[in-house]
Design brief:
heterodimer; A: alpha+beta; 3-stranded antiparallel sheet; B: alpha+beta; Alpha-Beta Plaits; two-stranded antiparallel ribbon; binds protoporphyrin IX containing FE; binds iron/sulfur cluster
């Protein structure tokens, strides 16, 4: 392969993410030589690539100067027309202060450590059930049979969605988050896929909300259906967008952390043995897995004024993309940043973001991942790849789409 | 050195407790409380880390 240069490196083309995985060499070069880098390539709107931990913190902590917008992430032009404005969800990720805080308050209390801790037993039970399904066999696709199941089941449980509907939710959320991937999207254009999925989604949750207004329960759906912002109920579109956000945001991200975590453990047998010997390591292990896999590749911000960042002059209206996986490998923050070390402490990764938009579901994701990796360490007697892992075609949420494994598991 | 948590900003996500459990505690109102108002120097590094990682910038370190 030709030597890497700033002029030619590519960190956006989704096909490269399929072929080679995360572009860690490219990010390392950017961190070293151009931490705030003007990225200009055909087919991509020019933007600033932010790759250092400290700069991502600086930007994320100034939500007035660096606003979130409908442009959630940078992508390459693909066949199919862009989304019409009215089809874009109105949700936390593209809101700004003061509206953003008011909306976040509607459900924040259901996502604090204390609140999610109450779900611990349900999460452990769902995890056990998922792993029980593997008993009696020797091979499976770890993604579809294990990692994909837990996050969806947990958020569905939190909403109060009946089990019979879980499979449908899975299909719709895949269609909505991974439309650039032909397997998830079908053969039509991105726009058609999204619109069809969105319609089905909205119909379902409209019904659910009507039900919870008539007979409220102690679930997340009731909190949203009966919630208010500045004294008013949530408008219909914002309400439905909220449901979509909570399903989408926690689904593929946690799934990819789970798959990527097991993948890392398989390729680092010493760390796998370490976790099996000492399951009390699991909290630290999960932080390291989240740092290592960093399932969200980027979110964007837009500068609202001319400003200087790490020596570069930015102009009002400029777009910035924050590359979280790069921050997780920042040599100035992490010792041996390229080493996968389950005992790493402290581990100040920002794979869940930081500041105004800090991941609402971080405590939930942690709880799910701890349950999963504790039980895996206790029950999986052996595990290895039974074929190559297939990566996702996305430069937004990244990870592994299919991962065949051969294993022995305790009943 | 003194430590304060601004309860108007804190949203109880517990980042501070994760990195400095000797100094911060989450209570039933989902707010973080400071356990040692005047912590010893030995705790400085973890308090600084907590202040840095607090997503809401709710932690203040006041030097005497
Ligand atoms: C390992 C799993 C996860 C990762 C890596 C992750 C990552 C992130 C990141 C980086 C952000 C910040 C966005 C920004 O600054 O613009 C974010 C926001 C968010 N995440 Fe997560 N997330 C995960 C799991 C979850 C789960 C389980 C939920 C549950 C519902 C969730 C819900 C959200 C929501 C609602 C936001 C928007 C918060 C806001 O804008 O105020 N996430 N996440
Ligand atoms: S990290 Fe900040 S916002 Fe979170 S609980 Fe601690 S003080 Fe509150």
């Amino acid at each position: 392969m030709a030597a890497l240069t700033l002029e030619t490196l590519d960190i956006i083309n989704p096909d490269l993410y399929v072929q080679r995985g995360y572009p860690h060499e490219e990010w390392a070069l950017l961190r070293k030589e151009a931490p705030v880098f003007r990225y200009q390539r055909p087919g991509v709107e020019p933007f600033w690539a932010i790759t250092k931990h400290a700069d991502i913190v600086t930007v994320s902590r100034q939500p007035e100067l660096f606003r979130s917008s409908q442009l959630l992430f940078i992508s390459q032009e693909e066949p199919g027309s862009p989304l019409p404005d009215e089809a874009i969800l109105r949700q936390l990720l593209n809101m700004n202060p003061p509206e953003h805080g008011a909306y976040r308050q509607v459900v924040n209390r259901r996502f604090t450590p204390r609140a999610v801790q109450q779900l611990k037993n349900q999460i452990e039970t769902i995890t056990t059930e998922v792993l029980d399904d593997l008993v009696g066999r020797e091979e499976c696709d770890f993604v579809t049979e294990v990692s994909a199941k837990l996050p969806l089941a947990v958020i569905a449980e939190m909403f109060g969605i009946p089990r019979a509907d879980w499979a449908m939710m899975f299909r719709l959320s895949n269609a909505m988050i991974g439309p650039a991937d032909p397997e998830y999207g079908g053969s039509e254009t991105i726009t058609e896929n999204l619109e069809r999925a969105r319609l089905e989604f909205f119909q379902y949750f409209n019904q659910l909300c009507e039900d919870r207004r008539k007979s409220p329960r102690d679930d997340l759906a009731s909190a949203l259906a009966n919630g208010s912002v500045n004294g008013e109920p949530l408008p219909p579109f914002e309400l439905l967008s909220y449901f979509a956000l909570l399903i989408i945001a926690g689904n593929e991200t946690t799934r990819n952390a789970t798959t990527g975590g097991l993948h890392a453990l398989i390729s680092h047998p010493d760390q796998w043995e370490r976790l099996k010997r000492d399951p009390s390591l699991v909290s630290k292990a999960v932080e390291e897995i989240v740092r290592w896999t960093s399932p969200v590749i980027q979110f964007t911000r837009i500068a609202t004024a001319d400003t200087v960042l790490h020596g570069q002059q930015l102009r009002q209206g400029d777009v910035l993309a924050l590359f979280y996986p790069s921050a997780g490998r920042d040599e100035e923050v992490f010792e041996h940043s390229a080493a996968f070390d389950l005992g790493r402490y402290p581990n100040p990764h920002i794979a869940f973001g930081i500041g105004e938009h800090y991941c609402l579901g971080a405590n939930l994701a942690r709880l799910e991942l701890r349950a999963m990796f504790r039980q895996l360490a206790q029950r999986m007697e052996s595990v290895e790849l039974a074929g190559p892992a297939q990566r996702m075609r996305s430069s937004f949420v990244g990870g592994i789409k299919h991962m065949p494994i051969r294993y022995r598991i305790r009943a | 050195m003194r430590v304060e948590v601004d309860h108007n900003l804190c949203e109880g996500n517990g980042r501070c407790v994760e990195v400095a459990s000797r100094v911060f505690e989450l209570r039933d109102d989902d707010r973080s409380y400071v356990l040692i108002q005047n912590p010893p120097q030995a705790l400085r590094a973890e308090i600084q880390l907590a202040a840095k990682l607090c997503p809401r910038q709710a932690i203040r370190l006041i030097e005497d």
